[in-house]
């Protein structure tokens, strides 16, 4: 009986030595590899594909919480619509709301009208570089923004639902 315990103890010791040796080998092998920086787990909320959208549509989509997204106009009835003299070929930009609340920092020049979808929208705009009071657009309603000078319309900086 003592021999059985002794054999088990010796077997466990041999296994521990073998495991320890392989761990030591793994540590020394890894020590020679260059250390790379870990990727960041912090979300910066940058808008995906913003550079391509800016090149294609001449608008800047900066960052948000992912609940207000650029959409094809006409793809749904409840889209936020932003009217702009920014481009003759695309005078309207549309945004889909994907949750009960959302925020999007953006920059659309020459905005003159905002239409809300099914939710009330608050827009932050500047005119002549001066930030104006927030424009609150009721659900399924529209509001003019900026002033009456066609050469000096508002710049839309933020949409919030």
Walk me through what this model shows.
The chain has helices at 2-31, 50-57; strands at residues 60-64, 68-71, 80-84, 92-97, 103-115, 121-127, 130-131, 135-137, 142-144, 154-160. It is an alpha+beta fold and 161 residues long. The protein folds into two domains: 1-36; 50-160, Gamma-B Crystallin, domain 1. Strands 1, 2, 3, 4, 5, 6, 7, 8, 9 and 10 form a ten-stranded antiparallel sheet that branches. A hairpin with a 7-residue loop joins β3 (80-84) and β4. The longest helix is centred in the N-terminal third of the chain and has 30 residues, at 2-31. It is globular. The N and C termini lie far apart (77 Å). Mean pLDDT is 79; it is low at 8-31.
Strand content: 25-35%
Shape call: globular
Structural class comes to alpha+beta
Span between termini: 77 Å
- Largest sheet at a glance? 10 strands, antiparallel
Number of strands: 10
Any idea how many domains?
Answer: 2
Mean of residue pLDDT?
Answer: 79
Order of helices and strands: HHEEEEEEEEEE
DSSP summary: helix tally = 2
CATH class of the largest domain: Mainly Beta
List low-confidence stretches. Answer: 8-31
Q: Kindly identify the CATH topology of the largest domain.
A: Gamma-B Crystallin, domain 1
The whole-angstrom Rg is 29 Å
Helical content band: 10-25%
- The CATH architecture term of the largest domain is Sandwich
